[in-house]
Amino acid sequence: MRQKFLTGISGILIALLIGAVIMASQGYDPFSTYLALFQYSLFSLYSFATTVKNSTPLILTGLSASIAFASGVVNLGQPGQLVMGALLATLAGLYIHLPPALEIPLLILAAMLGGVLWSGLAAFLRRAFNMSEFIVTLMLNMIADFFTTWVISFPLWDPKAFSPMTPQMDQAGWLPDIGDFSTVIFFMLLATAISWFIFNRWKAGYEWRMGGQNSLFARLGGCNVERNYVAVMLITGALAGLAGGLVVMGGPHRFIKGLGANYAWDGIMIAIVANNGLVATLLYGIFFSAIQTGALGMELITNVPSEISQVLQAVLVLVIVAGREYLNTLLDQIQTRRRARERTI
Amino acid sequence: MRVLTGLILGMISGATPILLAALGGAFTYYAGVFNIAMEGMMLMAAFFAVLGSFYLHSWLAGLFLAIVGSLLLALIFILFAVVLHTDEFITGIALNLFALGATIYMLRQIFKVKGAFNDPGIIAIPALHIPGLETIPWLGQILSGQNLVVYLALLATLISAYCVFRTRFGLRLRAAGYNPACLDTSGVPTARIRIQSLLVCGVLCGLAGAYLSLGYVRMFVENMSAGRGWISLAAVILVNGNPWGIAIISLVFGFFDGLGLFLQSYNIAPQFTAMVPYLATLVALYFYSMRQRKKVT
Amino acid sequence: MDDLIRFSHLVKVYPPNVLALDDVSASFRQGEIHAVVGENGAGKTTLMKVFYGLVPRSAGEIFYRDQPVNFHQPGEAIAQGIGMVHQEILLIPEYTVWQNIILGIEPMGWFGRLDEKKARKQVQAKINEFQFNLDPDARVGEISVSARQKVEIIKLLYRNVSVLILDEPTAVLTPQEIPQLFAELGRLRDNGHTILFISHRLDEVLELSDRITVMRRGKMVATVEASTTDKVELARMMVGRDVIFTSRRQQSQPGQVVFEANHLSYKDNEGRERLKDINLQVRAGEIVGVAGVEGNGQFELVNTLIGLTAPTLGRITVSGNDLTHAPILERRRFISFVPQDRGKMGASLVASILENSIMTHHRLDERFSIWKGLLLNDAFARQFTDRLESQFSVSMASKFNPFRSLSGGNQQKVILGRELLLSSPFILLDQPTRGLDVGSIEYVHQLVLQMRAEGRAVLIISADLEELFLIADRIVVLYRGQIVANMPVETTSVEQVGYYMLEGRGETV
């Protein structure tokens, strides 16, 4: 546990250092840039609330990827599942009108359903035809992207808008704010808690984890590996779909082009950095959100383009992950040398 | 007949970047490297190609710089995955995302635009007219007059096949994938072979990227590799790396890519036509998986 | 006679603090066959790996022909004329014999082209020179294990090594193939080559070697002339106490038939018959040992019994239940299974010891679930693991530590404990003592005999004939997928069983 913390912190510091070097080489002052970055993401209640709200899709897709990878399921389809979830939530919000107490749960379910259908498709292709979900989910991402773009450009297009998007959904489905904090956060935390509980305390979660660590062992132990695979695909699809739904419900209240499949790729990265740990995913999710949220404000003050946050992110991922391996090897080497010295005296 | 010609020309131009990237992927595949960074390498190359062509007023400079850009990414991959033993999958994904962010960032910083950069100052890679072949009726317009990179891709296929199956390097390359421990104890460091395969992949993806922004079209668009790296990965896996198989599969995908563009003129929404190559990949994967299944049961 | 190779105060530490080599000094002469013996974990393989450059040493020096050497990789050792053949044969099954042999020093033509003709000729010449019996064009994946071993040796001789290091060379051979190997090694020695070989099989070591070095727990014990020592003395030096070589098995009366396989057959996808009409019975209170050269159907037999593959014909019954096509969980109600490869099939190395212990129990024992069977009963799981720890004398720091923190012997104890606590009538053991030290092996044998005394039916598959003769009541031999012998252990001998294993029939006088 201590090692994980150490790797994380040192990785972040090294990556920030590398980022500073990149900024300096472009003629920007790293110190004031980072200051602005964190000022706009963490140092005020409003910015913190925004950061946490923006972290929702990152954390949910990150959880989706973490749970999948830790269970041995290669679900890389979060980008597609996210937009499908957003689409279904938007559809339900446009055509079904209920009081808010019912509308909101309905839209949440619709969002999860969207993700489930998309990941379920990949699971079906795997179970029925043995098609590698690695490639299938990747292809489905592209297909979902094109499909949803078509939907919002033609059948569901809002004629009053100048770029592809749907009309706004029924107000009953809009997720309100409580003070500075969006209620989106509530659903995200609830989903996180439920996921953690199932993954770590339920028999099903135990089997998923064992199956992910050694599927042959799980199979020989009597676990129904095939059924578990489908369950994991569906649940992780639901999480990604939920992310999409919350983005729409808590944000523009309509499906806009370029909604945020990028969130999902970031989520996958976060899962990798977190080494598939659920709590770590939550923490890294907030951290990465801080970088992204702060980047926009940073641009206002220091004129550093916000896209540098993406470069910083990638550097972070590589450094933390590489650092993790390297740190372990280093610690082992130190211990080895110490022991050897003891013997030769 | 003109339709057929159009489809074939579309097939060739669609196949070329996939073929080049897949050949690069084949080398790393044989060497036992789990390389999914072709997407990022192509994207970097596409950007650097435009950079070189625009500022140095020469398509050759663009081509050269494209390879440099792609190799840069390959070097980072080597640093993390081979030297530091970071997980190859993670390195690949991180590099793809890095390439995406970096090219968008550089697009803004250097060309001061967002979304795409299109300028008459960009010099495209020319087509190559082969005097003898041009005179052949009908075939002549297909065999001659293709973009230079298309001919390079053809050459690359031949050289790759020869290299992998007939040379000493090829024997060692495949050994690195089959049994790296054995290769090491035979006196050839597997790490060196893997590095070499990644460098080759870098060069080939560099050509692929240059074709995208200086041949296929003459501009740079954000994320212009558009998943072609994933398709080339699928191609490599489907044929187990065999260069001839890759050539055939690339033509198939290229055909569907061209078909997509073709269908647009029939009022089918552009999004559906854009889906076609990815659907085609799924179908190809279906046949592949069913065939694998028959072998096992 | 000068020492060709000298080790001086070698130390090797594996992180975090495992002392594999503890101040080892030894020397080897030119033109001798020198064996290094010791139990599993004594450090014999590590010693050679350090010498060969596969593993860096932590301290100490090595002298070759009186020059200090420090090989960083095998290539350097080979360049000096030293070659090592590992226990797991390290060849490329997809390549042919000649391709494997020339890999790394391939003859080249124009444009980096591989000169195939020249390569084949040179390889054939080497094969003829040493009178080995190999087909250069055969694919290595398709030839026998002993042939593969020969390819490894020729590969080194092709590089003109004068020192050959062999790691447990007889582990993969049948009793009948061993004399041939010994003859070849003897020829090499007479030719001036030096041979170092690692083994724990004392009879062979005494027969083949000129001198023997004994190691124990990372330390050098002694170097003796083979002609002046015997098995008992060697064993005592290896283990540190008198080892008993006689059987501890007591007579007993087996009861009803618990396990029965009828006409069990299996054809793989290429149509090859891997199992042919297997008829086998194991009674309560009986231990049946399955002997056979690896690759003669044991793998398929285990897979059909445990449920990984379905047989093409036949029936499997345990305690009257037809399990032929039953799902794995169903079978586990009646079958305990200890697999061959701990890490691959028997456990999750990264999961905690507790998580490994409760597998299968979590499904079959309702005390492990609460709240409608959805939640795991953590408290009970902890209790269960504690019980397992004490009952099976597992030495562990904490049950929450990862499984791989345990030593091999303790890992096997946890797996055995888990499986035996399932209280199933039939126990299937696949190479249960592979890779364990003498102490653990003894413990496992004790446990198995105890199961027999409790009236359970045990089927044990083992490549160690000595082990089978020690604990089994009956021995069955698998040859090319068929059972070619099925006899009570008192009526047969190691040599006879070896013959069956290799020839598929009894010896004709």
Average pLDDT taken over every residue of chain A: 86
Unreliable segments of chain C (pLDDT under 50, ≥5 consecutive)?
none
The count of helical stretches of chain C stands at 18
> What is the general shape of chain A?
globular
Residue fraction in strands of chain C = 25-35%
What's the N-to-C terminus distance of chain C? 46 Å
| Rg estimate of chain A, integer Å | 22 Å
Largest interface: A-B, 39 and 41 residues
As a whole number of angstroms, the C-alpha radius of gyration of chain C is: 25 Å
Number of strands of chain C: 22
| Biggest sheet details of chain C | 6 strands, mixed
How are the secondary structure elements laid out?
The complex is a heterotrimer of chains A (345), B (297) and C (509).
Chain A: H1 2-25, H2 30-39, H3 45-70, H4 78-95, H5 100-129, H6 133-153, E1 177-178, E2 181-182, H7 184-201, H8 203-213, H9 215-220, H10 225-250, H11 261-273, H12 278-302, H13 308-344
Antiparallel strand pairs in A: 1-2
Helix pairs in contact in A: 1-13, 2-12, 3-7, 3-10, 3-11, 3-12, 4-5, 4-6, 4-10, 4-11, 5-6, 5-10, 7-8, 7-10, 8-10, 11-12, 11-13, 12-13
Chain B: H1 2-30, H2 38-56, H3 59-83, H4 88-111, E1 116-117, E2 127-128, H5 131-134, H6 139-143, E3 146-147, H7 148-166, H8 168-178, H9 180-185, H10 190-216, E4 220-221, H11 228-238, H12 243-264, H13 270-296
Antiparallel strand pairs in B: 1-4, 2-3
Helix pairs in contact in B: 1-7, 1-10, 1-11, 1-12, 2-3, 2-4, 2-10, 2-11, 3-4, 3-10, 7-8, 7-10, 8-10, 11-12, 11-13, 12-13
Chain C: E1 3-14, E2 18-29, E3 33-37, H1 44-52, E4 59-64, E5 67-69, H2 74-79, E6 82-85, H3 97-102, H4 116-129, H5 145-158, E7 163-167, H6 178-190, E8 194-199, H7 202-208, E9 211-216, E10 219-225, H8 231-239, E11 257-267, E12 273-283, E13 287-291, H9 298-306, E14 313-318, E15 321-322, H10 328-332, E16 335-338, H11 342-346, H12 353-357, H13 361-364, E17 369-370, E18 375-376, H14 378-391, H15 408-420, E19 426-430, H16 438-453, E20 457-461, H17 465-471, E21 474-479, E22 482-488, H18 494-503
Parallel strand pairs in C: 3-8, 3-9, 6-7, 7-8, 13-20, 13-21, 16-19, 19-20
Antiparallel strand pairs in C: 1-2, 1-4, 4-5, 9-10, 11-12, 11-14, 14-15, 17-18, 21-22
Helix pairs in contact in C: 15-16
